[in-house]
Task: inverse folding
């Protein structure tokens, strides 16, 4: 997918974010707490979040007395982040060309973001460049497919999306053990280790599930306005097996992390 199409998707995400913000913040908060504790985020540190979105992780960084920096390709998401973190250094830009000096940060993170780069190794190399020697670089990607309930949604949505360009190489499977480590080594980072963690996404009802999925995943713009409602219905029907007795939908997912040193 082109860089321009990815940016367009996330602009669509930003339009619907305020409606779903409290729910999705509750999903991401356990991860933010775990990573802030694991990285010992504390007062005076300079922390860069690559693909910062609306600033969920950076809000916790600021609460711990560290200095939050963020960059995202979507100007609309950055605008939302600025309303929540008016004193943070938040910029619009590309992760393959970070607008920061060498050796600037005590921690660099990328939560489900680095794999959106046209060149993931180049993006990781940039993360290594702006991190201080010995600083941690944290990379998150999706975990094993069989332990990600959202894989079912991807299968449902695939027929609604534009086809892969002829001859385009397949994306690397970052859930495979060692895949993130190999990319980090190629980028000049020193991997410390990979680990997996899991938590469930909870949707209160059918309407919320359908609308949130097509808004936050950026699927509505890819499917097009003529098929948006058809896609929403297909998602709701296809995810019926995840509905609980009280009408909620619970989708458990595994996430893979790499911690490396610059």
Result:
């Amino acid at each position: 997918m082109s860089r321009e199409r990815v940016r367009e998707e996330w602009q669509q995400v930003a339009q619907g974010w305020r409606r779903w913000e409290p729910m999705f913040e509750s999903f991401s908060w356990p991860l933010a707490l775990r990573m802030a504790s694991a990285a010992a985020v504390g007062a005076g540190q300079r922390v860069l979040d690559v693909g910062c979105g609306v600033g969920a992780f950076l809000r916790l960084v600021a609460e711990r007395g560290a200095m939050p920096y963020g960059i995202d390709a979507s100007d609309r998401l950055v605008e939302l982040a600025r309303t929540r973190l008016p004193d943070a250094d938040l910029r619009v830009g590309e992760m393959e060309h970070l607008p920061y000096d060498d050796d600037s940060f005590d921690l660099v993170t990328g939560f489900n973001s680095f794999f959106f780069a046209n060149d993931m190794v180049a993006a990781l190399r940039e993360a290594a460049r702006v991190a201080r020697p010995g600083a941690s670089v944290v990379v998150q990607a999706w975990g094993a497919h069989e332990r990600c309930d959202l894989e079912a949604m991807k299968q449902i949505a695939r027929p609604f999306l534009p086809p892969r360009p002829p001859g385009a190489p397949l994306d690397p499977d970052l859930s495979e053990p060692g895949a993130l480590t190999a990319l980090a080594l190629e980028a000049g980072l020193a991997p410390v280790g990979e680990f997996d963690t899991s938590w469930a996404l909870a949707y209160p009802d059918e309407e919320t599930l359908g609308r949130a999925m097509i808004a936050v995943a950026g699927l509505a713009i890819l499917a097009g306005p003529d098929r948006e409602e058809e896609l929403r219905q297909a998602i709701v029907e296809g995810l019926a097996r995840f509905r609980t007795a009280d009408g909620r939908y619970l989708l458990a997912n595994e996430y893979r992390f790499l911690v490396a040193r610059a």
